[in-house]
Design a protein that fits this description.
Length: 303
Protein backbone atom coordinates (compact mmCIF):
# COMPACT_ATOMS: atom_id res chain seq x y z
CA UNK A 1 0.00 0.00 0.00
CA UNK A 2 1.22 3.50 -0.83
CA UNK A 3 -0.13 6.40 1.23
CA UNK A 4 0.55 10.01 0.26
CA UNK A 5 -0.53 12.73 2.65
CA UNK A 6 -0.53 16.37 1.65
CA UNK A 7 2.49 15.82 -0.52
CA UNK A 8 3.98 19.00 -1.98
CA UNK A 9 7.07 19.54 -4.13
CA UNK A 10 8.38 22.88 -5.29
CA UNK A 11 11.29 23.47 -7.62
CA UNK A 12 12.18 27.12 -7.03
CA UNK A 13 8.95 29.00 -7.66
CA UNK A 14 7.44 26.11 -9.67
CA UNK A 15 5.03 23.96 -7.66
CA UNK A 16 5.19 20.55 -9.34
CA UNK A 17 3.00 18.74 -6.80
CA UNK A 18 0.59 20.56 -4.53
CA UNK A 19 -1.01 19.08 -1.42
CA UNK A 20 -1.60 15.67 -2.95
CA UNK A 21 -3.17 12.88 -0.86
CA UNK A 22 -4.11 9.40 -2.06
CA UNK A 23 -3.91 5.73 -1.13
CA UNK A 24 -2.87 3.05 -3.61
CA UNK A 25 -4.47 -0.24 -2.55
CA UNK A 26 -2.99 -3.72 -2.88
CA UNK A 27 -4.55 -6.31 -5.17
CA UNK A 28 -5.38 -3.78 -7.88
CA UNK A 29 -3.71 -2.02 -10.74
CA UNK A 30 -3.93 1.71 -10.10
CA UNK A 31 -3.44 3.91 -13.13
CA UNK A 32 -1.66 7.22 -12.60
CA UNK A 33 -2.85 9.67 -15.25
CA UNK A 34 -2.45 13.30 -16.09
CA UNK A 35 -1.33 15.66 -18.83
CA UNK A 36 2.36 16.33 -19.45
CA UNK A 37 3.80 18.22 -16.52
CA UNK A 38 0.95 17.24 -14.16
CA UNK A 39 3.40 15.96 -11.54
CA UNK A 40 3.20 12.17 -11.98
CA UNK A 41 6.93 11.50 -12.29
CA UNK A 42 7.74 13.89 -9.46
CA UNK A 43 5.22 12.08 -7.23
CA UNK A 44 6.67 8.69 -8.19
CA UNK A 45 10.17 9.96 -7.51
CA UNK A 46 9.08 11.15 -4.07
CA UNK A 47 7.53 7.74 -3.33
CA UNK A 48 10.88 6.07 -3.93
CA UNK A 49 13.01 8.71 -2.24
CA UNK A 50 14.58 10.19 -5.39
CA UNK A 51 13.00 13.59 -4.69
CA UNK A 52 12.45 14.89 -1.20
CA UNK A 53 9.00 16.39 -0.55
CA UNK A 54 8.93 20.10 0.26
CA UNK A 55 6.18 19.14 2.71
CA UNK A 56 3.87 16.22 3.39
CA UNK A 57 4.69 12.53 3.60
CA UNK A 58 4.50 9.40 1.53
CA UNK A 59 4.87 5.86 2.82
CA UNK A 60 5.15 2.42 1.26
CA UNK A 61 3.93 -0.43 3.43
CA UNK A 62 3.68 2.04 6.32
CA UNK A 63 7.30 3.27 6.08
CA UNK A 64 8.90 6.14 4.24
CA UNK A 65 11.25 4.83 1.54
CA UNK A 66 14.32 6.15 3.39
CA UNK A 67 13.37 4.06 6.42
CA UNK A 68 12.81 0.81 4.56
CA UNK A 69 15.39 -1.70 5.75
CA UNK A 70 15.43 -3.54 2.47
CA UNK A 71 13.88 -1.28 -0.21
CA UNK A 72 14.26 -3.69 -3.13
CA UNK A 73 12.21 -6.34 -1.37
CA UNK A 74 9.51 -3.79 -0.53
CA UNK A 75 9.21 -1.68 -3.70
CA UNK A 76 10.13 -2.49 -7.28
CA UNK A 77 10.58 0.51 -9.52
CA UNK A 78 10.72 1.10 -13.26
CA UNK A 79 11.20 4.82 -13.75
CA UNK A 80 13.24 5.02 -16.92
CA UNK A 81 13.71 1.76 -18.74
CA UNK A 82 16.17 3.35 -21.14
CA UNK A 83 18.45 4.14 -18.21
CA UNK A 84 20.21 0.77 -18.59
CA UNK A 85 23.30 1.66 -20.64
CA UNK A 86 25.38 -1.23 -19.59
CA UNK A 87 28.09 -3.22 -21.30
CA UNK A 88 27.21 -6.12 -19.03
CA UNK A 89 24.94 -8.90 -20.13
CA UNK A 90 21.37 -8.64 -18.87
CA UNK A 91 22.01 -11.61 -16.57
CA UNK A 92 25.16 -10.05 -15.11
CA UNK A 93 23.42 -6.70 -14.73
CA UNK A 94 20.69 -8.39 -12.69
CA UNK A 95 23.25 -10.47 -10.75
CA UNK A 96 25.17 -7.32 -9.83
CA UNK A 97 21.98 -5.64 -8.61
CA UNK A 98 20.98 -8.78 -6.70
CA UNK A 99 24.40 -9.14 -5.08
CA UNK A 100 24.31 -5.64 -3.61
CA UNK A 101 20.97 -6.47 -1.98
CA UNK A 102 21.76 -9.93 -0.68
CA UNK A 103 19.50 -11.57 -3.27
CA UNK A 104 20.60 -14.99 -4.55
CA UNK A 105 21.33 -16.02 -8.14
CA UNK A 106 18.34 -18.33 -8.22
CA UNK A 107 16.03 -15.31 -8.03
CA UNK A 108 17.88 -13.73 -10.95
CA UNK A 109 17.12 -16.79 -13.07
CA UNK A 110 13.53 -16.70 -11.85
CA UNK A 111 12.92 -13.08 -12.92
CA UNK A 112 14.64 -13.73 -16.26
CA UNK A 113 12.17 -16.53 -16.83
CA UNK A 114 9.17 -14.57 -15.51
CA UNK A 115 9.82 -11.73 -17.93
CA UNK A 116 10.64 -13.99 -20.86
CA UNK A 117 14.16 -12.74 -21.58
CA UNK A 118 15.98 -16.10 -21.32
CA UNK A 119 17.04 -16.09 -24.96
CA UNK A 120 18.72 -12.67 -24.69
CA UNK A 121 19.95 -12.81 -21.09
CA UNK A 122 23.53 -13.38 -22.24
CA UNK A 123 23.51 -10.34 -24.54
CA UNK A 124 24.76 -6.89 -23.59
CA UNK A 125 21.87 -5.02 -21.99
CA UNK A 126 22.98 -1.80 -23.69
CA UNK A 127 22.18 -3.40 -27.05
CA UNK A 128 18.64 -4.42 -26.10
CA UNK A 129 15.64 -3.40 -28.18
CA UNK A 130 13.16 -1.12 -26.44
CA UNK A 131 10.82 -4.04 -25.73
CA UNK A 132 13.54 -6.25 -24.29
CA UNK A 133 14.90 -3.28 -22.31
CA UNK A 134 11.44 -2.74 -20.84
CA UNK A 135 11.23 -6.42 -19.84
CA UNK A 136 14.70 -6.18 -18.31
CA UNK A 137 13.59 -3.11 -16.34
CA UNK A 138 10.59 -5.03 -15.07
CA UNK A 139 12.81 -8.02 -14.22
CA UNK A 140 15.02 -5.68 -12.17
CA UNK A 141 11.96 -4.23 -10.41
CA UNK A 142 10.88 -7.77 -9.49
CA UNK A 143 14.24 -8.95 -8.17
CA UNK A 144 13.36 -8.48 -4.51
CA UNK A 145 9.87 -10.00 -4.99
CA UNK A 146 8.40 -6.69 -3.74
CA UNK A 147 4.84 -6.19 -2.48
CA UNK A 148 4.65 -2.87 -4.33
CA UNK A 149 5.51 -2.00 -7.92
CA UNK A 150 5.83 1.46 -9.42
CA UNK A 151 6.03 1.53 -13.19
CA UNK A 152 6.37 4.83 -15.05
CA UNK A 153 5.26 4.49 -18.68
CA UNK A 154 6.11 0.78 -18.94
CA UNK A 155 4.52 0.41 -22.39
CA UNK A 156 6.09 3.50 -23.90
CA UNK A 157 7.37 2.63 -27.36
CA UNK A 158 6.46 -1.04 -27.19
CA UNK A 159 5.01 -3.00 -30.07
CA UNK A 160 1.48 -4.43 -29.68
CA UNK A 161 2.80 -7.78 -28.46
CA UNK A 162 4.94 -6.03 -25.84
CA UNK A 163 2.04 -3.81 -24.78
CA UNK A 164 -0.18 -6.84 -24.29
CA UNK A 165 2.53 -8.66 -22.37
CA UNK A 166 2.92 -5.74 -19.92
CA UNK A 167 -0.86 -5.53 -19.50
CA UNK A 168 -1.26 -9.21 -18.71
CA UNK A 169 1.81 -9.24 -16.52
CA UNK A 170 0.83 -6.28 -14.31
CA UNK A 171 -2.70 -7.69 -13.97
CA UNK A 172 -1.16 -10.96 -12.85
CA UNK A 173 1.05 -9.16 -10.31
CA UNK A 174 -1.97 -7.33 -8.87
CA UNK A 175 -3.95 -10.58 -8.75
CA UNK A 176 -1.17 -11.95 -6.56
CA UNK A 177 -2.09 -9.23 -4.07
CA UNK A 178 0.63 -6.75 -4.92
CA UNK A 179 0.17 -2.99 -5.04
CA UNK A 180 0.75 -1.76 -8.60
CA UNK A 181 0.98 1.93 -9.55
CA UNK A 182 1.29 2.44 -13.28
CA UNK A 183 1.51 5.60 -15.36
CA UNK A 184 0.70 5.83 -19.04
CA UNK A 185 -0.59 8.34 -21.56
CA UNK A 186 -2.27 5.58 -23.58
CA UNK A 187 -5.89 5.76 -22.43
CA UNK A 188 -7.16 2.78 -24.38
CA UNK A 189 -4.40 0.69 -22.86
CA UNK A 190 -5.04 2.03 -19.38
CA UNK A 191 -8.75 1.25 -19.77
CA UNK A 192 -7.83 -2.41 -20.28
CA UNK A 193 -5.24 -2.56 -17.51
CA UNK A 194 -6.30 -0.47 -14.51
CA UNK A 195 -8.97 -1.14 -11.90
CA UNK A 196 -8.62 2.22 -10.23
CA UNK A 197 -7.30 5.54 -11.46
CA UNK A 198 -5.78 8.62 -9.90
CA UNK A 199 -5.72 11.64 -12.19
CA UNK A 200 -3.39 14.55 -11.57
CA UNK A 201 -3.67 17.98 -13.19
CA UNK A 202 -1.37 20.92 -12.47
CA UNK A 203 0.05 19.09 -9.48
CA UNK A 204 -3.32 18.34 -7.86
CA UNK A 205 -5.56 15.30 -7.62
CA UNK A 206 -8.44 15.78 -10.07
CA UNK A 207 -9.96 12.33 -9.51
CA UNK A 208 -9.34 9.21 -7.46
CA UNK A 209 -11.92 6.55 -8.31
CA UNK A 210 -12.62 3.11 -9.70
CA UNK A 211 -12.15 3.28 -13.46
CA UNK A 212 -15.76 2.40 -14.24
CA UNK A 213 -17.02 5.01 -11.77
CA UNK A 214 -14.84 7.71 -13.33
CA UNK A 215 -16.09 6.89 -16.82
CA UNK A 216 -19.70 6.90 -15.62
CA UNK A 217 -19.31 10.24 -13.85
CA UNK A 218 -17.49 12.06 -16.64
CA UNK A 219 -19.12 10.81 -19.82
CA UNK A 220 -22.62 10.67 -21.19
CA UNK A 221 -24.00 7.68 -23.00
CA UNK A 222 -25.68 8.39 -26.28
CA UNK A 223 -27.45 6.68 -29.10
CA UNK A 224 -26.43 7.00 -32.73
CA UNK A 225 -29.44 6.90 -35.00
CA UNK A 226 -29.50 6.83 -38.79
CA UNK A 227 -32.76 7.35 -40.59
CA UNK A 228 -33.90 8.71 -43.98
CA UNK A 229 -36.63 10.61 -42.04
CA UNK A 230 -34.34 11.89 -39.31
CA UNK A 231 -35.92 15.32 -38.91
CA UNK A 232 -39.35 13.77 -38.19
CA UNK A 233 -37.81 11.39 -35.66
CA UNK A 234 -35.81 14.23 -34.07
CA UNK A 235 -38.97 16.31 -33.70
CA UNK A 236 -40.76 13.40 -32.05
CA UNK A 237 -37.84 12.79 -29.67
CA UNK A 238 -37.71 16.41 -28.50
CA UNK A 239 -38.06 16.82 -24.76
CA UNK A 240 -36.50 18.71 -21.87
CA UNK A 241 -33.83 16.04 -21.13
CA UNK A 242 -33.18 14.95 -24.69
CA UNK A 243 -30.42 16.37 -26.89
CA UNK A 244 -30.30 15.55 -30.58
CA UNK A 245 -27.14 16.55 -32.42
CA UNK A 246 -26.82 15.99 -36.16
CA UNK A 247 -23.43 14.40 -36.84
CA UNK A 248 -23.68 13.62 -40.57
CA UNK A 249 -26.46 13.75 -43.19
CA UNK A 250 -29.21 11.47 -41.91
CA UNK A 251 -27.31 10.64 -38.71
CA UNK A 252 -27.75 12.09 -35.22
CA UNK A 253 -26.38 11.49 -31.75
CA UNK A 254 -29.13 11.46 -29.16
CA UNK A 255 -28.54 11.71 -25.43
CA UNK A 256 -31.07 11.44 -22.63
CA UNK A 257 -32.88 8.39 -24.05
CA UNK A 258 -32.14 4.71 -24.49
CA UNK A 259 -31.71 3.01 -27.85
CA UNK A 260 -34.82 0.96 -27.03
CA UNK A 261 -37.02 4.02 -26.60
CA UNK A 262 -35.71 5.58 -29.84
CA UNK A 263 -36.45 2.31 -31.65
CA UNK A 264 -39.93 1.99 -30.09
CA UNK A 265 -40.80 5.58 -30.95
CA UNK A 266 -39.63 5.18 -34.54
CA UNK A 267 -41.62 1.95 -34.89
CA UNK A 268 -44.78 3.54 -33.49
CA UNK A 269 -44.49 6.33 -36.05
CA UNK A 270 -43.55 4.01 -38.90
CA UNK A 271 -40.23 5.81 -39.40
CA UNK A 272 -37.56 3.53 -40.87
CA UNK A 273 -34.32 3.28 -38.88
CA UNK A 274 -31.16 2.14 -40.66
CA UNK A 275 -28.86 2.21 -37.63
CA UNK A 276 -29.37 2.35 -33.90
CA UNK A 277 -26.25 2.07 -31.75
CA UNK A 278 -25.78 2.63 -28.02
CA UNK A 279 -22.47 4.33 -27.30
CA UNK A 280 -20.91 4.38 -23.86
CA UNK A 281 -18.20 6.87 -22.98
CA UNK A 282 -14.55 5.76 -22.90
CA UNK A 283 -11.79 6.43 -20.41
CA UNK A 284 -10.33 8.78 -23.00
CA UNK A 285 -13.60 10.78 -23.12
CA UNK A 286 -13.68 10.94 -19.31
CA UNK A 287 -10.01 11.88 -19.10
CA UNK A 288 -10.33 14.68 -21.66
CA UNK A 289 -13.43 16.07 -19.95
CA UNK A 290 -11.72 15.95 -16.57
CA UNK A 291 -8.37 17.42 -17.56
CA UNK A 292 -9.62 19.95 -20.11
CA UNK A 293 -8.73 22.88 -17.88
CA UNK A 294 -5.54 21.37 -16.55
CA UNK A 295 -3.45 20.90 -19.67
CA UNK A 296 -0.46 23.20 -20.04
CA UNK A 297 -0.39 22.99 -23.82
CA UNK A 298 -3.68 22.80 -25.68
CA UNK A 299 -3.96 22.21 -29.38
CA UNK A 300 -6.59 23.52 -31.74
CA UNK A 301 -9.54 21.20 -32.32
CA UNK A 302 -9.46 19.70 -35.80
CA UNK A 303 -12.91 20.09 -37.27
N1 LIG B 1 14.02 19.00 -11.39
C1 LIG B 1 13.10 19.88 -11.76
N2 LIG B 1 13.33 21.21 -11.73
C2 LIG B 1 12.39 22.11 -12.09
N3 LIG B 1 11.14 21.79 -12.49
C3 LIG B 1 10.83 20.49 -12.53
C4 LIG B 1 11.78 19.46 -12.17
N4 LIG B 1 11.18 18.26 -12.31
C5 LIG B 1 9.92 18.52 -12.75
N5 LIG B 1 9.72 19.85 -12.87
C6 LIG B 1 8.47 20.51 -13.29
O1 LIG B 1 7.44 20.02 -12.48
C7 LIG B 1 6.25 19.80 -13.23
C8 LIG B 1 5.80 18.36 -13.08
O2 LIG B 1 6.70 17.52 -13.80
P1 LIG B 1 6.57 15.94 -13.87
O3 LIG B 1 7.72 15.44 -14.69
O4 LIG B 1 6.40 15.39 -12.52
O5 LIG B 1 5.21 15.77 -14.67
P2 LIG B 1 4.61 14.46 -15.35
O6 LIG B 1 3.18 14.42 -14.96
O7 LIG B 1 5.44 13.27 -15.01
O8 LIG B 1 4.74 14.81 -16.88
P3 LIG B 1 5.01 13.86 -18.16
O9 LIG B 1 3.69 13.21 -18.45
O10 LIG B 1 5.38 14.84 -19.21
O11 LIG B 1 6.10 12.91 -17.79
C9 LIG B 1 6.57 20.21 -14.67
O12 LIG B 1 6.13 21.52 -14.88
C10 LIG B 1 8.07 20.11 -14.72
O13 LIG B 1 8.59 21.02 -15.65
Amino acid sequence: MIVAEQLTKRFGDKTAVSNVSFTVQPGKVTGFLGPNGAGKSTTMRMIVGLDRPTSGTVTVGGQSYAHLRSPLTEVGVLLDAKAVHTGRSARNHLRAMAATHGIGRARVDEVIELTGIQSVAGKRAGKFSLGMGQRLGIAAALLGDPRTLILDEPVNGLDPEGVRWVRQFVRHLAAEGRTVLLSSHLMSEMAQTADHVIVLGRGQVLADAELSELVRAWTTNNVVVRSPRLSELAAALAGPDVTVTASAPGVAEVSGVTAASVGDLAASLGIPVHELTSRTGSLEDAYLALTGDAVEYTSKEIA
